[in-house]
Specification:
Radius of gyration: 26 Å
Family: Belongs to the class-I aminoacyl-tRNA synthetase family.
Distance between the termini: 57 Å
Number of helices: 16
Bound molecules: zinc ion
Catalytic activity: tRNA(Cys) + L-cysteine + ATP = L-cysteinyl-tRNA(Cys) + AMP + diphosphate
Shape: globular
Main location: cytoplasm
CATH class of the largest domain: Alpha Beta
CATH topology of the largest domain: Rossmann fold
InterPro entries: Cys-tRNA-ligase, Cys-tRNA-synt_Ia_DALR, Cys-tRNA/MSH_ligase, Rossmann-like_a/b/a_fold, tRNA-synt_1_cat_dom, tRNAsynth_Ia_anticodon-bd
Largest sheet: 4 strands, parallel
Subcellular location: Cytoplasm
Number of strands: 15
């Protein structure tokens, strides 16, 4: 069997992966809070853990892998979005507007992630479907002294869990010094975090032993992973922005409520995404959603390829140049593999790279070698392991088969004539029409080369 090595955030080491139950793999990944379109950064963990799921399915058999990713559908941001819609005159109760918004957002999310070639997890639990299990878990934590109720809240007593901070490598006192903790009259200690909080009448709420209210964010992942995967499972994933406090709090809740289990054996965290070297933010004007990119004509497969070109534990820099290079490579590879049957298995070098802590950049480098060697069947089988080159994502590269050489000649001749006449208007007209069609125009003394970019639209050439 292929040896898989994964970097475990908990031990800060790359380790040989061994499932808790031999030949079965269980994975839990923190999913989105569903109140708006997924931005490009939200898509990175989806692609990273899709690769993990595909690798595990390849090695252990898809039927032996259980992959869970939740939807957080109870959250203050969702409430705020619904509230502002109601204030803007939208019809329906707040609860109906919330349900409408979460339903719509989940649909968008699944559509956008499918466009990136991400397979759907086996389970996609929603927080609101697990309120009873969350209440039960909180009651157990209170009964065992790890939590307490005060002023309609339930809180976790952080200092009762001696391993608190171990995952993210912080001491409780450092965390207090970092002082992002909120002091509140209902807290015994500022570090304690909310398990349950009261809801006013105009907010969604459920009856509980502590009054009508709603869960804090962290408890849902503990309750859902326990219900679906049990008290011990193999891999827990998420972005490294979730490591503290979210994952730290998940560990505390789960290990105290179910001390017989070990909760997650391996923790995997992906690094964040930047755009053209800068943090993506609305104020910098470089904020965009997955849907924005798709609508601009950047194919989902190109986005996926760009993501895979950087190792998941390194910051990923999204650039237009990378997207263009990815499109060119994929066009070439799709040309090579068109009409070919994939080899029975991916190339050993590609598989070994992916199995080495998801070294997707290394896997792509190996695929370039296969392409150079003309091993189309091996290239295709390897691509499929990475969710590339499959029929599901393929339409964009097919397009009408356009021979660009006539256009290249046309521009070259126009330029030769212009050198004589000193009238460059025809050259300029052709150049801007080619660029408008998504072609990169490369001119040299000896000729013209037109290179299709990711937004190439052959129909725009028809008028020329
Ligand atoms: Zn979570």
């Amino acid at each position: 069997m292929t040896e898989i090595k994964l970097y475990n955030s908990k031990t800060r080491k790359k380790e040989v992966f061994e499932p808790i139950i031999p030949d079965r793999v269980s994975i839990y990944v923190c999913g989105p809070t569903v109140y708006d379109r997924a931005h490009l950064g939200n898509a990175r963990p989806v692609v990273v853990f899709d690769i993990l799921n595909r690798l595990m399915s390849h090695v252990y058999g898809a039927e032996n892998v259980t992959y869970v990713r939740n939807f957080t559908d109870v959250d203050d941001k969702i409430n705020a979005t619904a509230l502002s819609r109601k204030e803007a005159g939208a019809e329906g109760t707040l609860e109906e507007l919330i349900a409408e918004r979460t339903e719509e957002t989940i649909g968008w999310y699944l559509g956008d992630m499918a466009a990136l070639g991400a397979l759907e997890p086996d389970h996609m639990p929603r927080a609101t479907q697990y309120i009873a299990q969350m209440i039960e878990m909180i009651e157990k934590l209170i009964a065992d002294g790890y939590a307490y109720a005060k002023d309609s809240h339930a809180l976790f007593r952080v200092r009762e869990f001696e391993n608190y901070g171990k995952l993210s490598g912080r001491s409780v006192d450092d965390m207090i010094a970092g002082a992002r903790v909120e002091v509140a009259p209902y807290k015994e200690d500022p570090m304690d975090f909310v398990l349950w909080k009261p809801s006013s009448d105009d907010l969604p709420g459920w009856d509980s032993p502590w009054g009508r209210g709603r869960p804090g964010w962290h408890i849902e992942c503990s309750a859902m992973s326990y219900e679906i995967l049990g008290d011990s499972f193999d891999i827990h994933g998420g972005g490294n922005d979730l490591q503290f406090p979210h994952h730290e709090n998940e560990v505390a809740q789960s290990c105290c409520a179910h001390p017989e289990g070990e909760f997650a054996r391996v923790w995997m965290h992906n690094e964040m995404l930047q755009v053209e070297g800068k943090k993506m933010s609305k104020s910098l004007g470089n904020f965009f959603t997955v849907r924005d990119l798709l609508e601009q004509g950047v194919p989902g497969e190109v986005i996926r390829f760009v993501f895979l070109s950087t190792h998941y534990r390194k910051p990923m820099d999204w650039t237009a140049k990378k997207a263009e290079e990815a499109a060119n490579t994929l066009r070439k590879w799709r040309g090579l593999t068109a009409g070919i049957e994939p080899a029975a298995s991916p190339s050993p070098a590609v598989l070994a790279a992916v199995a080495d802590d998801l070294n997707t950049a290394g896997a792509l480098a190996e695929m370039h070698k296969l392409a150079s060697a003309g091993d189309a069947a091996g290239l295709l089988a390897s691509g499929l392991l990475l969710g590339l080159l499959g029929d599901d994502l393929g339409d964009w590269a097919q397009g009408p088969d356009v021979d660009l050489s006539a256009f290249e000649t046309q521009l070259f001749e126009a330029r030769t004539a212009a050198m004589e006449s000193k009238d460059f208007s025809e050259v300029d007209r052709l150049k801007s029409a080619f660029m408008e069609a998504g072609l990169e125009v490369r001119m040299s003394k000896t000729g013209v080369k037109l290179v299709p970019g990711p937004n190439f639209d052959a129909s725009k050439l028809e008028a020329l």
